[in-house]
Design brief:
Radius of gyration: 29 Å
Oligomer: single chain
Structural class: alpha/beta
Number of helices: 23
Number of strands: 9
Largest sheet: 5 strands, mixed
Distance between the termini: 42 Å
Helix content: 55-70%
């Protein structure tokens, strides 16, 4: 009992400290993504708090951090601008809130229909491409921190300003790299942020801080209040078919991007922690969080791979870490805005650079020439499309390529061994799956004109997989009937027999059920058990 209490106490400490670290990293990210979406920073901060808190409590992956993300923000910017054009200045924000609510409803429906489980079917090369692409995106997003506003325009830092920024970023990364070798119990990210912040404040260095970052982007500072229920939302936006037609496509795209990023991040955290999350529960929690966020004036969100990695690497394993991060973020907004505004951007940038290093699948370089060419192509394609377009397009294209390659490879593997029985019956023993991709090769195996009066197709080593396969069999039966020859099909599993019986009476008649072969009964039993 004492040992259990100590272990839980130690884990609680890790969860709290990792939550504090994540909260600090959430501030500039939420603000930056709000600027990208074209909304006030407080809209992004409120979204990070509400989505993060709700998913931490009810989500399917303890330790995963959710909030406002860049993948969603790049879609929202056009939504807000079009909303302003349709309804007038400021109406785009209301359209955004309505879209986030509809997005959440779609995500809840996906979870209730238990469609989240299909993320487990995503091939590993797609997963590696997703990780590498997001690492590159995070890296590129941090490069904007090396710019400053001069004469109303963003320009790269130069001279001593650039050297100071690089030095502070390097110091942050060095602390995070070497501290675990000295003391593993101390949260390296939080210590690095604290040390660099004290150095900047103590020496009075003139560097970009969280406060200056917000003001340069057009905000007034970190100060804000509690999220307020949008009582005038549905008065401002009419519930009409025209409204639904406008926000519907955006809601579908945002729901898809949010779920893909969340579920793939869930898979990644599963691998890192050697545990298993609940994908359908996460879909419902993400959807519920977005519905509430939209009603309370937030920009919506999903899982954040960078902050999730920070949390896991800092020792966060339970729901407490996410709850602490969300509540701490709210406390920053309400009570500690002046203090947090003094944190140098260089410290947070250094933390994110270490996240990039830890996220990128460096092993992909080592295995690239060892894996099949098709898998290497998928990995590189998904990485590139994630950077150029967005995560949803990249993952969908990767899955399509993988599926086509799989279908093509299996289509080439169908075989037909031929033999004759003592009574002159010709037997075609089929090996390999019969599906849409293999039907042409399957048809070419039969010599209807020269075959004897009785022909048997043996499916002991094969199975009928889809409608294309049924149609191919139906055409083959008709060809043998037209030639005046008898065709029988044997060793079909119960499932395949049911498919053929439902498809056509003609196919039902050619099934040979009574077969004196012990292997047949064994295979039938195996298929019935679903093995």
């Amino acid at each position: 009992m004492v040992k259990l209490i100590r272990e839980r106490g130690a884990n609680l400490r890790n969860d709290v400290l990792s939550g504090l670290t994540v909260a600090l990293a959430l501030v500039p990210e939420a603000v930056a993504f709000a600027f990208v979406a074209g909304v006030d920073p407080i809209v992004g901060l409120h979204a990070a708090f509400m989505v993060g808190l709700i998913t931490s409590v009810f989500g399917g992956r303890p330790g995963m951090i959710s909030g406002a993300t860049g993948a969603l923000a790049v879609v929202m910017v056009s939504l807000v601008s079009e909303g302003d054009a349709i309804g007038g200045e400021g109406m785009g924000l209301y359209y955004l809130f309505c879209t986030v609510i509809l997005m959440g409803m779609i995500q809840v429906a996906v979870g209730l229909l238990k469609l989240g489980k299909f993320v487990r079917l995503i091939p590993h090369p797609v997963m590696m491409g997703f990780v590498n692409g997001l690492a590159i995106v995070i890296f590129l997003s941090q490069l904007s921190m090396f710019k400053t506003v001069r004469n109303g325009e963003l320009e790269w830092l130069q001279g001593s300003s650039l050297l100071t920024m690089l030095g502070l970023v390097g110091l942050t990364m060095a602390i995070m790299h070497f501290l675990p070798r000295i003391n593993r119990k101390m949260p390296e990210a939080l210590v690095a942020i604290g040390v660099v912040s004290l150095l900047v404040i103590g020496t009075g260095l003139d560097v970009a801080t969280v406060g200056s970052f917000i003001r340069e982007g057009g905000g007034e500072g970190l100060k804000g209040g509690l999220p307020m229920f949008q009582t005038d939302l549905f008065q401002a936006i009419p519930l009409s078919w025209d409204t639904l037609r406008f926000i519907g496509p955006y809601a579908v795209i945002l729901a898809a991007i949010g779920l893909i990023e969340s579920l793939m991040t869930l898979n990644l955290i599963d691998e890192l922690t050697e545990t298993r999350g609940q994908s359908n529960r996460e879909c419902i929690a993400q959807g519920g969080a977005n519905i509430i966020t939209g009603m309370f004036g937030g920009m919506g969100g999903c899982a954040m791979i960078g902050q999730s990695i920070i949390n896991i690497k800092s020792g966060g394993r339970t729901r407490i870490s996410g709850i602490v991060a969300a509540v701490t973020l709210l406390c920053f907004i309400l009570f500690a805005s002046d203090l947090i505004e003094r944190v140098p951007i260089a410290a947070l940038t250094g933390v994110m650079f270490m996240v990039v290093i830890g996220t990128f699948a460096w092993s992909s370089f080592r295995i690239l020439h060892r894996i099949p060419l098709s898998d290497a192509l998928v990995l590189l394609t998904v990485s590139g499309l994630t950077v150029v377009f967005d995560l949803a397009i990249a993952v969908i294209v990767g899955i399509i390529i993988s599926a086509l390659v799989f279908s093509w490879e299996n289509a080439k593997r169908i075989r037909a061994r031929k033999r004759f029985l003592a009574d002159g019956t010709k037997v075609y023993e089929i090996w390999g799956p019969l599906f849409f991709g293999s039907i042409q090769v399957f048809k070419s195996k039969f010599d209807v004109h020269n075959d004897p009066e009785r022909v048997v197709i043996d499916f002991m080593e094969s199975r009928v997989s889809d409608h294309s396969a049924l149609e191919a069999l139906f055409q083959l039966v008709e060809r043998y009937d037209a030639a005046g020859k008898q065709l029988k099909i044997q060793h079909l599993s119960e499932e395949c027999q049911n498919l053929m019986i439902k498809a056509s009476p003609k196919l039902a008649r050619v099934i040979e059920r009574s077969v004196d072969d012990p292997r047949y009964h064994v295979m039938t039993s195996v298929n019935a058990l679903g093995v």
